[in-house]
Amino acid sequence: MIFDRVKSLDAILATAEKKSLTRTLGAFQLTMLGIGAIIGTGIFVLTAEAANKAGPAMMISFVIAAVVCALAALCYAELASMVPVSGSAYTYSYATFGEIIAWIVGWALVLEYAIAASAVSVGWSGYMVKLAEEIFNVSIPNTFVKGPFDDDPGLINIPAMLIGLVCMALLIVGTKESARFNAVLVAIKVSALLLFLVFALPAINAANFEPFSPNGFFAREVMDPISNNMVTVGVAAAAASIFFAYVGFDAVSTAAEETINPQRNIPIGLIGSLGICTVFYLLVAAGAIGSIGAQPGGELSQSDDALAFVLREIGHGWAGDLVAIAAGIALPSVILMMMFGQTRIFFVMARDGLLPDVFSKLHPKYGTPHIVTMCTGVFVALFAALFPVGKLADISNSGTLFAFFTVAVGVMILRRTDPSRPRPFRTPLFWLICPLAAAGCVFLFFQLSGYTELMFLGWTVIGLAVYFLYSRGRSHVGRSLGSA
User: Are the CB atoms for 48 and 304 separated by under 8 Å?
Assistant: First the structure.
């Protein structure tokens, strides 16, 4: 049978003790990690894409995405406090669904973390290129700042590729050091958003919110008059894209094995970072819409540096430049944390025998999984160099929504199969929260474009081939090297 390999929670904890990571992170650092992973390309860049899909009704899209993420966060907090080891949804699925589903989840998390890191790298590149053009009054050709698959293609996106490689080097040096660096970048990002709000909120004009929902609620395909391509629009479609703006809070759970007192600190980091970011997002969206409008096909929807563009349009060019500089400095923190999550998941999969053992080797000096970090960095840099931010973000969302779905269902299964296990954090009203979280993930998945859904299906098929050709025969559980 293919669903017979379930790794017990006791076995997972025992495996982690044999080859464990160093615990150095506290509640404040975890909250900063969460904010650092969440606030980034989603709000700085994808605000424009949301405007093109939903118009001013993207306010509702932000709320929908936030609600689904909040429900998922409550599920994550319970499992992370129960099983304080690295691996996120992959580890939890191993204990509830068995090895093959765990493998599919781990494979899907490549889309969530590595592809997300590539998307943020491209977003960072867009801000830096626009800033350089603004400061030096030049027009930079697309050849070396756009990928070949962009709507307005170039040859290769060199800035996006380079920032991915820089973040890879930071992660190899060490978790504690990169967390300190991240805390500084979080402060810069929050300051930039506050500066935006100071100027954008007083400029709000109620007339800019009309018509409020020009493309309706549910996702539908229309012809884009600018690119002449079919695009998916609607409030729900925008929510499925904006979901990317909240992705990252679960990177906190991947740091469980490196956390001091994880039973207390993981839930604080998860829910605290998500709550803070939600308030920021709604205020920023209101400021952007109310100050210059956000109709599909309008100027905001076509911008590569949305927040800086808004400030320049309302007469505060210097503030726009400062926001662009802050984004350019601070967006690497998102890349950093996405890559951090990816390397820790691959580390745990290798520790379970599902990936080559070399991926679980630690650097003799820094104590970090350096080989898997280098492989991840090259992967991130390659995709960032070739693909546009919108496509990368939607593909990342497909993997994320699948992982969140399994976590929500996993909480319900473990409540029935292992009810006596200590749960330092318990999902409140789990019989309501968990089904709603699962249903929300399914709903948003089917609001993504058909192209994105096919990409996810193809990625899953490739993953299953790797599992049956390599991983299944080398699994520690399957070979009785770990307790099933």
Answer: yes
Residue 264 has pLDDT above 90, yes or no: no
Q: Which residues of 395-404 are buried (b: 16+ CB within 10 A; e: fewer)?
A: bbbbbbbbbb
Interatomic CA distance for residues 190 and 84, integer angstroms:
29
- In whole angstroms, how large is the CA radius of gyration of the chain? 21
Asked if residue 337 belongs to a domain, the reply is: yes
Closest CA to 398 of 437, 459, 452: 452
pTM above 0.70, yes or no: yes
* Cα 417 from Cα 420, distance rounded (Å): 9
Residue 19 covered by a domain: no
Total domains in the fold of the chain? 1
Residue 220 in domain = no
Alpha helices, H only, 201-305: 235-246, 251-254, 262-292
Express each pLDDT in 366-418 by its tens digit: 777 889 899 999 999 999 999 988 888 889 999 999 989 999 999 999 899 88
Backbone angles phi, psi at 306, to 5 degrees: -50, -50
Domain of residue 354, CATH code: 1.20.1740.10
Tokens 């506050």, residue?
194
